[in-house]
């Protein structure tokens, strides 16, 4: 049961043979961050900064933003209770306005297809107030990090090209942000991983949107939900390709993690590790189960499961192949 699983996890993500995979939390606000810290998240892999401002008619004042960001950052400043000497980085995503998360002060009205429109980083790249909003957010995030002493990383949503990645990293640097990355959630960013990863300090795969754009299937539509199943071999093969392109590039050392819902599935998590994902970020309630699942497999087990899942013809076969392999391996 949940309590037994939680008791088995010691708060450090790793396979049974010691391959370290930090297990991070997806959070949206200070109470969520405090809860995640209590559940021993090793940091925040995705702080969805837009969630606090979904009903804001105007851009929130800088002081309001800084209080929100500092609240989340302070839950992870310093090492975890019990020591260990590790820092717990907080990865803030800049405002992902648009599509399923419209922000009244940023989102364009009347777009015929908002999921394919001006959302995420694109808001800062078209004429309008978005560019200044991004700069104020970056400055405020940097100020909140200085205020709390927490380790801040910042990443951009909806990046499709290496040029967008470069532009974003330059903006971060202008505000003294040392660790700047991008979400990989548009298939084009996978196919150009060689160039994209060379621009950034880290990347994080958003499997929710990556599946939506890979299958041309609205993530909010029930009738097409089966296409957005993270066990779809096409999605897993795209992650494998991401890994292969990353390894073949000069940016071999750029860590790539996962922060979409796929990372919260304890059966799929070892597959993602086998595909080379360096960190997993999830709803905090999933941490203990994923931690226990990783602790029960070697890195080689994970790699074999990844190969089996990618080779399967459909999600059901992928689940079955991985379950059979796991039973044999244990
Ligand atoms: C994703 O797209 O997978 C993701 C993690 O971000 P969001 O769900 O907020 O779009
Ligand atoms: Mg997304």
From TrEMBL:
<keyword id="KW-0479">Metal-binding</keyword>
<keyword id="KW-0670">Pyruvate</keyword>
<dbReference type="GO" id="GO:0046872">
    <property type="term" value="F:metal ion binding"/>
</dbReference>
<keyword id="KW-0808">Transferase</keyword>
<dbReference type="GO" id="GO:0009401">
    <property type="term" value="P:phosphoenolpyruvate-dependent sugar phosphotransferase system"/>
</dbReference>
<dbReference type="GO" id="GO:0016301">
    <property type="term" value="F:kinase activity"/>
</dbReference>
<keyword id="KW-0460">Magnesium</keyword>
<keyword id="KW-0418">Kinase</keyword>
<protein>
    <recommendedName>
        <fullName>Phosphoenolpyruvate-protein phosphotransferase</fullName>
    </recommendedName>
</protein>
<feature type="domain" description="PEP-utilising enzyme C-terminal">
    <location>
        <begin position="14"/>
        <end position="294"/>
    </location>
</feature>
<comment type="similarity">
    <text>Belongs to the PEP-utilizing enzyme family.</text>
</comment>
């Amino acid at each position: 049961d949940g309590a037994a699983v939680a008791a088995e996890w010691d708060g450090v993500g790793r396979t049974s043979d010691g391959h370290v995979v930090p297990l991070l939390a997806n959070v949206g606000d200070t109470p969520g961050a405090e809860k995640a810290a209590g559940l021993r998240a090793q940091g925040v892999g995705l702080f969805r900064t837009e969630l606090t401002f979904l009903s804001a008619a105007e851009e929130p004042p800088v002081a309001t933003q800084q209080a929100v960001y500092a609240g989340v950052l302070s839950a992870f400043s310093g090492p975890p209770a019990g020591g260990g000497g590790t820092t717990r980085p907080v990865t803030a995503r800049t405002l992902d306005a648009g599509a399923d998360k419209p922000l009244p002060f940023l989102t364009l009205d009347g777009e015929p297809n908002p999921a394919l429109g001006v959302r995420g980083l694109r808001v800062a790249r078209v004429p309008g107030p978005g560019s200044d909003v991004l700069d104020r957010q970056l400055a405020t995030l940097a100020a909140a990090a200085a205020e709390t002493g927490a380790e801040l990383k910042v990443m951009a949503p909806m990046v499709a090209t290496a040029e967008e990645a470069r532009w974003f990293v330059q903006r971060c640097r202008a505000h003294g942000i040392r660790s700047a990355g991008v979400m990989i959630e548009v298939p084009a960013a996978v196919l150009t991983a060689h160039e994209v990863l060379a621009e950034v300090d880290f990347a994080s795969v958003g499997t929710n949107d990556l599946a939506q754009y890979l299958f041309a299937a609205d993530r909010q539509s029930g009738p097409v939900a089966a296409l957005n199943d993270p066990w779809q071999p096409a999605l897993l093969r795209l992650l494998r390709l991401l890994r292969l392109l990353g390894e073949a590039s000069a940016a071999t050392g750029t860590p790539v993690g996962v922060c979409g819902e796929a990372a919260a599935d304890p059966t799929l998590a070892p597959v993602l590790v086998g595909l080379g994902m360096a960190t997993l970020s999830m709803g905090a309630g999933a941490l203990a189960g994923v931690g226990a699942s990783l602790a029960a497999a070697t890195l080689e087990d994970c790699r074999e499961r990844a190969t089996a899942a990618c080779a399967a013809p459909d999600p059901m076969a992928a689940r079955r192949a991985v379950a059979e392999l796991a039973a044999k391996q244990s």
